[in-house]
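ARCHIVE CARD
Drawer: 12
Card no.: 0347
Subject: one protein chain, sequence and derived structure
Cross-reference: see card 0346
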Amino acid sequence: MTEQNPLAEYPELVQTLLKNRGIIARDDAEKFLHPSYERDIHDPFLMKDMEKAVVRIFEATQANEKIIIYGDYDCDGIPGSVILHDLLKKIGYKNFDVYIPDRHEEGYAAQ
């Protein structure tokens, strides 16, 4: 008796990508391919000093202090900067700017 492939319903490329991530069960594949914000988001307050950061941002916005979002030009720095930008816009805060350093002029090797 041959065991059936639990990922057989997915295209071969998707099966390969799932297996490369260590996902071999159908239920795990469904959770990965169809994430749920409520189920899958991690508590940000598990990060070290998150409460201090939230309090500091709250204090700065209450005092209308200038906030500079100093991002990085890499694959997580830019989206992180966008998230903070969008948060401040959403709460109606206007006294901020975003700065992403020039990769060539200010990058790691530019020193």
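Annotation on reverse: The chain has a mean pLDDT of 92. The first helix runs from residue 12 to 20.
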